[in-house]
Structure formats: C-alpha cells, structure tokens
Amino acid sequence: MKRNLCLKTTLMLLISIVTLGQNSKETPKGSTKYSFFTLNTLKNTCFDNIQKKQVSAYIREIYEDKAGVLWFGTNGDGVCRYDGMQMKFLSKKDGLIGNQINGITEDKNGNIWLATNEGLSRYDGKRFTNFTIKDGLSDNQLWSILLDTKGNIWVGTLAGVNKFDGKKFNKIDLPILEKPGVSRFNQTVVWSMIEDRKGNIWFGTDGGGLKKYDGKKVYTYSQKSGMASNNIRSVFEDHEGTVWLGTQGGGISRFDGKKFTNYGEKEGLSSVNVWTIYEDKKHQLWFGTLGGGASRFDGKTFKTFKETKGVTKNHVQSIWQDKRGNLWLGFSGGLYRVQGDLVENIPAERLVGC
Fold first, then answer.
1. In what order do the strands lie in the sheet with 201-205?
2. Do 101 and 118 meet the contact criterion of CB atoms below 8 Å apart?
3. From CA 7, how far away is CA 15, in angstroms rounded?
4. Per DSSP, what are the bridge partners of residue 328?
5. Cα(270)–Cα(306) distance, rounded to whole angstroms?
6. CA-to-CA dists, residue 199 to 105, 144, 213, angstroms
7. Domain extents for the chain?
8. CATH classification of 37-350, choosing from 2.130.10.10, 2.120.10.30, 2.40.128.280, 2.30.130.40?
C-alpha cells in the first residue's frame, strides 16, 4: 500500500515538472508576447548584428514578401531580412550591388529586387545577380522600382526610367517641363512609380511634375493643373482608385481623375514635405514626412505620430503594415512601430523569436 502511494506521488511530481517546463517555453521570462514576434529583454545571440542597438540608423524602405518575411532597406547597411525569428543582414560583402536601398519588390518567382545607389540587384534566396550601366541601365544610381502586372521591372534612375522585360533594359523617355519646379537633381529622376488598376503607370518626378503612361502616350500634370508642387516624392493609389501625391514643399495632392485637392499644414498635415504614402487595413492613409513624423488621415482629419524622446529627427521615409497587423515606421533613428496612439522604438535586440 505504501509502495503504491509512493509511486503515485512520484508520478504526480514528474507530471508537474513536465507541465511547468512546457509552460515556461510559451513566454520566456523577461519577454512580452505579441502577435508576430517576441519582444525580448534578455541577452540573445540569434542576430548577426547584436552589437548594434538599432536595426539601422536610417530605415529607408520596408517591404513584406509573399512568405511574410520583412525586409528593411537601410541607408548604408544594406538590407535586413527578418522572418519573425532571426535577422540577417545582406550587404556588398554578400554580393549586393550597393548598400543604400531605395526600393524593394518581389517578382512572381519569389526573387527580391533591390534598387540601390550603385545598381540593381536580384536575390533568389542564395545569391545576387546584379545589373549596372554595362547591362543597359541609364545610370547606376536608382531611386525607385516597380513590378507591373505583366512582370516587367521598372526602375527610376538618375538619368531617367528603364523597363526590364527579363532580357534587356529599355529607356522610357518622359517629357520635361519648360519651367520645372525646385529639384534635388533633375526632372528626369523618378522618385516614385505605381501601376494603377487600369494598367497605367504613374511617375512622380524630381521637379518635372506627375506623369501618366498608358502604354502609348505620356500625359503630364503640373502645378498649372492644380497640384501643390512639381516635385513629387510619392505616388499612391488608394482602395477606391484615387491617386494621392506626396510632394516636396507642397504637402499632399489628391487626384480624382478630374481635379486636384491639396492638403497642407493648415488642414492638419504635420509637414508639407511628404516622402511616402501608405493605406492601412482600415483604409486610413498614412503620410511619412520630413521632420513631422507620420500623419494619419481618416478621410476627415489628420493625426500626428511622432518620436517624442528626441533621439530622431522625425523623418519618416517608409511605412508598412504587415499581415499580422503590426504597423512599422522607418525613421531617421531606427525602426519604430505604432502601438495605439504611441510610436515605439523597436531596437535590434528586441526583434527576437528564438
């Protein structure tokens, strides 16, 4: 009888230990479990850049591929691949053509294309294939990239637009304005490109206004057409088919196909210099600005989201909401995430799931 009681007690003790061990794996001590990853306060060794506090000093581009992997394009550290478990940096030493990432897209085969300051790179998950002026690019300095519905890759170079059909690069000549706006380089530079739902390609240029290409003819829109500025930093089509423009010095222009409506600081926008535009899952529009953080527009009013500890310049050049609902902001100062009404810094050591 005593022997059976002893065996029963021992068995219960073993079950308790196993159960405790299983529970302890669910949420490690010192961490907070979120829907995508674990924000960890403990020392970890699953990164190849654990010496850095931030993912990078400047996150220029944020992109999520079909598999749910996040790609962070930096200003000089190459690109960071984050799969929710580990971060991996890819740079020139790994075969990437340039370390400043100005655009990211993915083709139907799962290749990641990166527009850089030194050329175009295609990454198949193992190795890079690079393209430069030797392969037909008009210039090695690229500022934008687009994959159209036909599978063509469009890149905006310092010397104009090129379209790559998989075999060769073709130059697309865009008309120039006789009286261009203020530009950083020249009006042949395309800061942003989109394909709308009708198949038109739109180009936001450096002082040359807005261009629309229908496959045969290029149409030009400028301040004479009612836009706020001729320097178009970002072009975006919302879920209703309305085209939005983020400008340098003029705020936002909304184009319904017939007329432009402009929004500036008077309407509540945090800065008239707008670098990027994004629409979240609730169909709210986000505008990343120079010095004003991010402005969210619900169709009626603007709300400003800023870093408040003084560790950044509140430049926001990239915005992305991932499949799990996390809304990311690429700041001049690192990677941030919107949590309710707050903007939270996510340093490298907290992007951990291992």
1. 190-195, 201-205, 210-213, 218-221
2. no
3. 12
4. 320, 337
5. 10
6. 18, 18, 9
7. 37-350
8. 2.130.10.10
Cα 7 to chain centroid, rounded:
60
Closest CA to 31 of 44, 22, 21, 16: 44
pTM of the model: 0.86
For tokens 């991010």, name the residue.
294
Rounded to 5°, the CA angle 117-310-53 comes to 60
Q: Which amino acid is at 190?
A: V
pLDDT at 151 over 50: yes
- Cα 270 to Cα 266: distance, rounded to the nearest angstrom: 9
**Residue count (the chain):** 354
Which helix (H) or strand (E) segment holds residue 117: the answer is none
pLDDT the model gives residue 280: 98
- Let me know: does 287 contact 276? Beta carbons within 8 Å: yes
* Secondary structure letter of residue 248 according to DSSP: S
**Residues 146-167: what's their mean pLDDT?**
97
| Cβ proximity of 147 and 115 under 8 Å | no
Other beta carbons less than 10 A from residue 64's beta carbon: 19
For the range 338-344, what are the long-range contacts, defined as Cβ-Cβ under 8 Å and sequence gap of 24 or more?
338/294, 338/305, 341/303, 341/305, 343/293, 343/294, 343/305, 343/306, 343/307, 343/308
Q: What is the per-residue pLDDT across 158-203, written as a single tens digit (0 to 9) for each?
A: 999 999 999 999 999 999 999 898 899 999 999 999 999 999 999 9
pLDDT tens digits for range 5-27:
444 444 444 444 334 343 333 33
